[in-house]
Specification:
alpha+beta; Arc Repressor Mutant, subunit A; 5 helices
C-alpha cells in the first residue's frame, strides 16, 4: 500500500521496460523460482545438489541457472569439476519476498 501523502511516479524508458519485462519473464518460471528459493537457503551450493533437492536433472538445473546468471540474478564459482552458485542480486530476493507477502495477504 502506498502511504498517504507519498506519491510514486514510475517512468520507464524503452531499455528499462525491456529489462523489467525480461526480469518478470524469468521469474515467472516455476523451476527458476524453485532454484532461487534453494539458493536463498543455501548460499554457494553446487548444481548437482540443487538438482537433487529439486528432484530434477543436472542439465535442466544448469540451463535455468545459466539464464538466471545472464540476467545478473546469480553468479557461479567453479572448483574443480563442481560449479557452485549463489544469489548475486539481493534485489531479486526482495522482489520475491514482497510478492510472497502480497500473495499471503501480509
Amino acid at each position: 500500500m502506498v502511504s498517504e501523502g507519498k506519491q510514486v511516479h514510475l517512468g520507464y524508458d524503452e531499455d528499462e521496460i525491456s529489462g523489467v519485462i525480461a526480469m518478470f519473464k524469468a521469474l515467472s518460471d516455476p523451476t527458476r523460482l524453485q532454484i532461487i528459493s534453494v539458493l536463498t537457503q543455501e548460499s554457494g551450493i553446487c548444481v548437482s545438489d540443487i538438482a537433487q533437492i529439486l528432484n530434477m536433472s543436472i542439465s535442466r538445473v544448469s540451463h535455468h541457472l545459466s539464464m538466471l546468471e545472464k540476467l545478473g540474478f546469480t553468479r557461479h564459482k567453479q572448483l574443480g569439476k563442481q560449479v557452485y552458485y549463489k544469489i548475486d542480486d539481493d534485489c531479486i530476493v526482495d522482489i520475491l519476498t514482497r510478492a510472497q507477502e502480497h500473495v499471503r495477504g501480509s
